[in-house]
């Protein structure tokens, strides 16, 4: 794991060698939901359906909002996932008028809880452990039987330039509405944000989590581009709780937690004066990603 820091505003990156870690995804006890987003325009909302996929909840499946106890001994890190369903769809652009507003899809342990939508930035974990970040296409649906986990969140921050090997800023990074970047009511894009990118170096692939205390999608693109990433996407934003990231190490029977930013620990739990890390020892209402240390293969 590699940590970096830049003064004036906080920008911290953590890179995970994907030869050493397995990536996983878990929905929270409440989010993301599968009903209609508040963002969709009335013309694309089908009132005969309880949600864009025709369901209102994922019952009878149970949302645990935390790791399995069997995974605790291997956990290396966790970080918060993407937008809640309320904000996870489009009001503007062609994505707003197709597929009921292009709600952000997600898959957990091979179960499609909400359909993956074309045109959206997607984290994918395959059943062999391989990780990819890409813009989902209709052709990618053929790979669904091989996908263990997936999470969509908006559009690309950084992507491959069509017709060339260059990596460029996503085509909508400067567009507040079509990018669904959120921020503030007066359409200011600069705010606290977190993102994810894939970096390839010396024959290895790294998953990079980036925290930015004050950034626009464009500035995130430049940072990820300078770091040699081939694709990047937004996660959540606007608060330490929504950009939470922690790494862990064991000390005997204890699990020691180091938060990426001071203040993130306020959302952890505690019992008898002992801290209980969010997502690991305490169920949480938000979805999250986790990295497990790989054993010998």
Question: What can you see in these coordinates?
Answer:
The chain has helices at 99-102, 217-226, and strands at residues 2-6, 11-17, 21-26, 75-80, 106-108, 111-114, 121-126, 131-135, 147-152, 156-160, 167-169, 191-201, 204-215, 229-237, 245-251, 254-259, 269-271, 274-276, 288-293. A hairpin with a 2-residue loop joins strand 12 and strand 13 (204-215). Mean pLDDT is 91; it is low at 1-8. The strands form 4 sheets. Strands 1-2-13-12-14-10-11 form a 7-stranded antiparallel β-sheet, with helices on one face. A 5-stranded antiparallel β-sheet has the order 3-19-4-15-16, with no helix packed on it. By secondary structure, the protein is mainly beta. The chain contains 2 helices and 19 strands. It has one domain (2-293).
Features:
single chain; 297 residues; mainly beta; five-stranded antiparallel sheet; 2 helices; 19 strands; 5% helix; 38% strand
Number of discrete helical segments: 2
Numbering strands along the chain, what is their spatial order in the largest sheet?
1-2-13-12-14-10-11
Give the count of structural domains: 1
Report strand %. Answer: 35-45%
Proportion in helices = under 10%
Distance between the termini: 20 Å
Order of helices and strands: EEEEHEEEEEEEEEHEEEEEE
Structural class: mainly beta
Q: Report Rg.
A: 18 Å
| Number of DSSP-assigned strands | 19
Shape: globular
The stretches of 5 or more residues where confidence is low (pLDDT under 50) are 1-8
Mean pLDDT: 91
> Major sheet, described briefly?
7 strands, antiparallel
């Amino acid at each position: 794991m590699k940590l970096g820091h830049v003064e004036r505003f906080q920008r911290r990156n953590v890179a995970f060698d994907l030869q050493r870690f397995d990536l996983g995804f878990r929905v929270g006890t409440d989010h993301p939901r599968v009903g209609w987003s508040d963002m969709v325009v009335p013309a694309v909302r089908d009132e005969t359906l309880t949600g864009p996929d025709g369901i209102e909840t994922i019952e009878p499946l149970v949302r645990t909002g935390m790791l399995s106890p069997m995974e605790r001994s291997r956990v290396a890190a966790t970080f918060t996932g993407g937008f809640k369903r309320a904000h996870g769809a489009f009001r503007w652009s062609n994505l707003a008028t197709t597929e009921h507003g292009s709600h952000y899809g997600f898959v957990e342990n091979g179960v499609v809880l909400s359909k993956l939508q074309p045109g959206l930035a997607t984290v994918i974990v395959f059943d062999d452990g391989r990780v990819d970040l890409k813009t989902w296409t209709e052709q990618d649906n053929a790979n669904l039987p091989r996908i263990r986990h997936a999470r969509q969140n908006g559009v690309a921050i950084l992507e491959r330039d069509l017709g060339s090997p260059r990596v460029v800023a996503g085509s909508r990074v400067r567009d507040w509405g079509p990018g669904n970047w959120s921020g503030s009511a007066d359409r200011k894009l600069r705010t606290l944000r977190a993102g994810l990118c894939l970096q390839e170096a010396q024959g290895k692939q790294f998953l990079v989590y980036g925290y930015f205390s004050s950034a626009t999608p464009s500035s995130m693109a430049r940072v990820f581009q300078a770091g040699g990433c081939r694709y990047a996407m937004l996660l959540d934003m606007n608060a330490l709780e929504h950009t939470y990231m922690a790494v862990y190490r064991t000390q005997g029977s204890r699990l020691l937690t180091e938060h990426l930013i001071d203040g993130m620990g306020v959302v952890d739990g505690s019992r008898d004066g002992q801290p209980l890390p969010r997502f690991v020892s305490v169920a949480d209402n938000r979805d999250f990603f986790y990295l497990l240390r790989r054993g010998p293969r």
